[in-house]
């Protein structure tokens, strides 16, 4: 018996349309644990929804294996899989009442009508939408329909709940509220959630682990912190949050996971190597998050001498006040431009540096990641 | 400026003439469309037997039909007509039942299925709608003749045209109409609904009857009503595929016309028109109803 709820082993899905073969999902392998909130994150067309549909059984993989609770899913149709889906457009049955919608799945299991009705009402309570059982779906608001779709899937008590951009159609405020509610609900029921989204913030705030996908490939799997702090590829670093990319040449690899990178202006810095870095890579990119970069006056000598700190000379090109932070543009020589974000802790900070001023920029070596170019 | 004023006035006059013309245009169009039918309806209430002049309002001809139908004494023998009407209902009912089932199945295959040559088959579906009725009628007549000859050659049994040929012929053109109407309904239906049903544990059979069928039912009924109306009204194809003793109402009316235009024919035609309009009206109402909900 496997300890995982869902295992994908080398999944490939090829779509053929008009003679063109498109690899929607390309050699995806991942293990999802019981009770985990797992997000599939990526831009539209990256293969995240196809991956979800493969798990649900709406599509069959071209090759590879899907296991749910240790059981191989080959040849098992959607209606026999212990998973349920919350569709992006909810897909509520328009000819049935809310209550009948929720009872549908139970009746398919052979639960008698009275019991099914009781459990449907409980499910409506669970999603905090009591008293709408007699209504028709099209009489409900988008947010309410979303809850009904959730109740309809949860009432089946599936091993895994699949959610396909469930909050995509809601307005921003409602979406924020639903994020908290969904997360709380997931903790309550303890069901594994596989959550497809293109919204990085949604994934970071809700998920236990995130898988970032692009062009059918699962680029990186990790906790939101790992994904944000240590992106392993250029795409992941770029897709999630804002990042500075500094081109350079990798001179030397240390045994401690750090390497020496020579930047365009000739300075050599120490930076942390990505696990996914090509072993033969020479031309690389150093990624640093803007909020990890500090700015100091050029006279601030001691900053350079602290162990593990990289300090470079720069010219402040400009600044932009954005409320909580101030965003500084910095020039390192003629070729490198950096963005730094400093929190506006007090009023003095934001006025401390002037455009055109020579400054020192510094960051902790462990805040960097050396990626393939 | 003075010259311009004259030109402007002329322009204004032309524009006003154009506006009057535009208003008159639909009146003429509707007149051409409806005048013959109005004349027919009018003369079905004419007290004179002749269509030369309208001499007064009467319900006599309707009364004649009704009396005869009830078995009372009447100046007009409706026995043949009633028989023809019964034949029409029989042909219409059977042809509608068959074509509704087949047409719905085709619509489902076209909307949901993935198979080679789908585009071609899809295009062929519209053929009976666009090819001239007379072409279809003759082709069916020839087809039945060839088929029966071949059957006679193979089995030694002779088969003659009759209800079976009329029904088969009606099914061939009705299928297209049913399929087109049901397909329009399916095209408006979210395919995720069937997936949702599967997802909730319904196998394809149960998903069809619990979700798909209730949602396309208005389309199916609408298609069936359309098929029934077409079947009831059809003259050309029926005329070419009928045998002995299978006269339907339109064929019967045509036969009456060859003898003389009796006022009862006007009355029957009016009744048929009202019936057809009613059925088509229901069909259209069903197509429009709750389409937005899907």
Write the layout of secondary structure elements.
The complex is a heterodimer of chains A (373) and B (294).
Chain A: E1 4-17, E2 20-33, E3 37-41, H1 48-56, E4 63-68, E5 71-72, E6 83-86, H2 98-109, H3 113-126, H4 142-154, E7 160-164, H5 172-189, E8 192-197, H6 200-206, E9 209-214, E10 217-222, H7 224-229, H8 234-239, E11 244-253, E12 258-263, E13 268-272, E14 283-288, E15 294-296, H9 302-305, E16 309-322, E17 325-332, E18 336-343, H10 347-350, E19 358-364, E20 368-372
Parallel strand pairs in A: 3-8, 3-9, 6-7, 7-8
Antiparallel strand pairs in A: 1-2, 1-4, 4-5, 9-10, 11-12, 11-14, 12-13, 14-20, 15-19, 16-17, 16-19, 17-18
Helix pairs in contact in A: 2-3, 2-4, 3-4
Chain B: H1 2-43, H2 60-69, H3 79-112, H4 118-125, H5 127-130, H6 133-155, H7 163-187, H8 192-199, H9 204-233, H10 236-241, H11 249-259, H12 263-288
Helix pairs in contact in B: 2-12, 3-7, 3-9, 3-11, 7-9, 8-9, 9-12
Write structural notes for this entry:
- The complex is a heterodimer of chains A (373) and B (294).
- In chain A, a hairpin with a 2-residue loop joins strand 4 (63-68) and strand 5 (71-72).
- Chain A has helices at residues 48-56, 98-109, 113-126, 142-154, 172-189, 200-206, 224-229, 234-239, 302-305, 347-350; strands at 4-17, 20-33, 37-41, 63-68, 71-72, 83-86, 160-164, 192-197, 209-214, 217-222, 244-253, 258-263, 268-272, 283-288, 294-296, 309-322, 325-332, 336-343, 358-364, 368-372.
- Chain A has two domains: 4-234, Rossmann fold (3-Layer(aba) Sandwich), CATH 3.40.50.300; 244-372, Beta Barrel (OB fold (Dihydrolipoamide Acetyltransferase, E2P)).
- Chain A has 373 residues and is an alpha+beta fold.
- Chain A has a six-stranded mixed sheet, sandwiched between helices. In chain A, strands 13-12-11-14-20 form a five-stranded antiparallel sheet, with no helix packed on it. A five-stranded antiparallel sheet of chain A has the order 15-19-16-17-18.
- The mean pLDDT of chain A is 89.
- Chain A contains ten helices and 20 strands.
- Helix content of chain A is 25%, strand content 38%.
- Chain B has 294 residues and is an all-alpha fold.
- Chain B folds into two domains: 2-62, no CATH class; 65-293, MetI-like fold (Orthogonal Bundle).
- Helices cover 77% and strands 0% of the residues of chain B.
- Chain B is built from twelve helices and no strands.
- Chain B has helices spanning 2-43, 60-69, 79-112, 118-125, 127-130, 133-155, 163-187, 192-199, 204-233, 236-241, 249-259, 263-288.
- In chain B, helix 3 packs across helix 7.
- The longest helix of chain B has 42 residues, at 2-43.
- The N and C termini of chain B lie far apart (62 Å).
- The mean pLDDT of chain B is 85.
- At the A-B interface, strand 6 and helix 2 of A face helix 8 and helix 9 of B.
